[in-house]
Amino acid sequence: RLVPQSHKALKTYEMLQPGDVVGVAISGGKDSLLLAKLFQSLVRYSAIPFTVRFLAMDPGYAPLNRERLLFYLSWLRIPATVYRSDIFQVADEIADAPCYLCARMRRGFLYDRAKQLGCNKLALGHHFNDVIETTLLNVLWSANYKNMMPKIVARNFDNMELIRPLYFVEEKSIIAWRDFAGIKPLDCACVVTQQKVDSQRRNIKALIESLKTVNPNVEKSILRSGENAYHLAVALGKLLDHSDSSPSDP
After folding, report:
1. pTM (2 decimals)?
2. For 147, left (φ over 0), alpha (ψ -120 to 50), or beta?
């Protein structure tokens, strides 16, 4: 199911165009490692000619976690360039909401390095469950409707687009691949959240599981609400005569 679901997202949202140079971002977690392996195959057999670059960021991992990242890149034969930053330290020192700041800084760092590698697109490993959980997190905790769109135009980087090829891939399928491959990736190597017993996302996961007992299709309904918002944003962009065919990165 992994390959058909990723191909569905690529085709549905026209994520690839001839001549694209796609930077695949790798954190060392199961999602990004799978994404990298999918793109290794895709670039060889796709009917759309494109180029792929693999980049990994060490945002301040403990030495053991950095070693694990390098080991799995080697084990899976992913030729990634690894960049070091101090994002973990900065987020921990100055932010009341370190997770939010960390995510924004990591995104900007990856955009910048992808541009240096000549990329016009950056692929991230967010999957189906990430999308619906983020939607509910924003609604219930932030009182707004922001979701992970499948394709967005970078606001601060010219000619750069972000794509999420795992948009339709469920986390359970990725876990099955991880177990089949016999690897134990960096599911969470953050030095900040390691100290926290609970998390909002864990609560959201439990809420969704509870809702599924009442409505088995609740996950698809949440995803479709985000898709409807995406298509509305695209339609409004065309109505307002924007030059871009997809909404901007929030």
Report:
1. 0.84
2. beta
